[in-house]
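User: Sorry, folds how?
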Amino acid sequence: MNSTQKKKRLQEIHNVFPRWSAVLLLTGFFVGSVILPMLPSSGWQVHAAPHQAAAPGDVVISEFRTTGPGGGYDEFVELFNRTNETIPIGNWQIKKSSGCGGASATPLVTIDAGVSLAPGQYYLIGKKPEYTGTVDQEYTSSSSIADDGGVALLDDVGAIIDQAGMCSTTAYLEGDPLAPLSGSSDRSYQRGDNGCTDTDDNNADFVLQTPADPQNSNDTPVRCLRVVNVTSTVDDVPPALPYVQDNLIPITIEFSSNVNVTDFPTLLLETGATDRTATYSSGSGSDTLTFDYTVQNGDVSADLDYVSTNSLSLNGGSIIGAVGDADLTLPSPGTPGSLGDNKDIVIDNQEAPSTDSFIRYDISEDTIADEITNANTLEFRATFSEPVINVDTSDFSVTGTTASVSSVVSVNSSVYEVTVSGGDLAALNGTVGLDLSGGQDITDAVGTNLPNGEPIIDETYIVDNIAPIVTINQASEQADPASATPVNFEIISPEEIDVSTFTVDDITQSASGTVSNSFITWSITDSGDHKTFTLSAERVAENGTLIPSIDGSNVMDLAGNPIIVVAGLDDTVTFNDNIFPTVTVNQASGQGDPTSALPIDFAVVFSEPIISSIFTTSDITQSGSATGITWSITNSGDDQNFTLSATSVTGTGTLIPSIAANRVTDIIGNDNLASTSTDNTVSYTKPPTSNPGPAATKTPTSFPHQAVVLNEVLPRAGSDWNEDGAIDVDDEFIEIINRGVTSVNLNGWKLDDEKNGGSDTYTLPNVTLNSGERIAIFGFITHISLSDGGDTVRLLKSNGQVADTVTYTVVKGADQSWCRLPEIGFWNPKCFPTPNEENTAIRNFSARTAELVVSTCLVPDTVPDEILNVECGTLGLGIWDADYWEGLADADRPVWLTGRSKWATWFR
């Protein structure tokens, strides 16, 4: 039922029951003989709605892959109709986004005209000829989906219906991205619950499917178990009277197939100030469940509906069908299939409505408006205690202006936006408010009149169209002429200034000021009342007159009026700096004396800022007995306070630094006076030399200070550790563990196998490791090549700092990992691979490698071709053949071997 019909029906309630009361309820004769003949004789007809365009999520990408056994072009995209309606998808398109970048303008495929998907039906698009399965439609262009790209389904007008991505910055993506697919394994990403799961988060909706399981339109449709309709068995109002306290209203929820219920799921209803729940009562085993709602004191609704699409809650129970858990998503309130659209149920609290508030509101920004304004249009939000009708411009009046209410727009049945415009607003200076008009005819849904009167919250606007006149004068204590900074001025406004618009960028020297503006550094200090400010010239690099001005076009009052700036009675200060800067040199605070430790620090303090670039160590004079001193100077940042440090001293004795006159200048150019001191002497002695005695046994640190560290590295796999059906470099892994007591987010951390070389660094995903948690990252994800000849693995923090590093030596056998054993201990080169599990020592190392069987020979990535027969012979995966490498006599070794070890050969 559309909004016009509903308004008509609510008006009929008002006409038929202007003041219904207990008398009408108790007088059956009156109801039967008077009221009923007044109702329309033709009844209320419900017409089927026209076919609606598919909404996002109606048809989804239910399974896809970007690479497979056939190579990088072995791709497919599977579509699925989640709804219970047939959806035409003719002329829809599949598009891709190029890697982590933007969308491609050219579609991968345009679906043939006339194609439709029945409820639960699949549709398969494949990249031919690389994809060898049976497809409904193929794309044969040279384009393909990048492993770190995205894919989207667009309808015939170009609207995105669904999308999935494998990079956080790719154009086609919902929520968090999936990890890129790589390699030649037969696997794919499949949407959960046979394609029914859709939370608008790719990482949550899809799971890795091994082997891939694509389906096409010839496969048996599998409908999603979902809500298809919400209604009630009670009568509409009218012809029924409005429902009041203690009335029972059964609400039925129809699913697409039969469901079984445990415990007591609930449905949250919109019932005014307090939302109420309807509780499950019956229907388990069928496709329709009944929820009972009893009207409570204070409940009110002009058209009863649930709160939102997620108002159906399991409440600790379950709703399950043959295909699994039911999708509890409801039709949007007020749309086809919702309770509000199917039924006209009026709840009356048997009280007169009231006006809750008139508040200032910025409709375009959807937020509270500022009290002070110079706007020519004012907007209010009027809120009532319950749903009301008959609300229009004639129901309101405006105070403080000749302007009037120009529009009233409903936000919902109890909240309205009221716009005031025209009249004298453009030039007004005063307070403007909103009232109910004396002739207002607003009523609640059953015809009870809204009483006149002011709401408890009754906000007004202060309209200000007058620009403030701002003056600038010398500060009261400012010397004139001045020989030192700061030079202070006072800025006074008759009203508050919007301080966010007032910055030093708005300050300039007036044309009559003789000091160049580029030679002045200004600062502004607010007194706190936003009316009085101190403007200070903190630095002045030449002598002359200071006459500051303000660019009033940028500085506003609170209403938004630009200020008008006028000169004060005395807005000029003459600056004449002829004072020579003084300087002191003393021991720095905390400096030991005597001392044998370096550096030795002194505090150098000038009486005013100097040109720091000309202050160098050559300006320091050492008059003490210490020799071979290397000095350094550190500026505190204010060009006035410095730290002088002796970083190296070759000969013991006293350090007595000083600065001669005329070595540096202030900003104006005045030379410094010779330094003075109260204590600028420090005695330096050589550190004592101790007898080292017997060499101590070095105890390595059992664990780095960082909480997150490397925990295990497998550079050579002999088993299918990633469970993709193949044993290859993709099974190599690097494991990270959090040994700290708090969680650590790894967003932006990196893995690398060699500083400034080796493989490209791998950036870890946005994942949080809780205390004690570990994560193993396989080679097919990192693409880091772990060399069989030894390598270094580094874990880098997001700021580039090295968090941990491990260097392993030559690999002697497959499934030999390097790990911390125990996990709070040292690195051990004889570990058995345990990705994502606690580390353990290898079990019978040689026997383990001898029993491994693989479909192809795993040749070490550093072994020369001449020994291929050894690596792929009867020893299988035995990378290290001790008899061959170390047991043969010199004459029996291949000529290219020049040493007795495998390491020496590989290094050459």
In short: Residues 355-463 form a domain with the Immunoglobulin-like fold (CATH 2.60.40.1220). The mean pLDDT is 85.
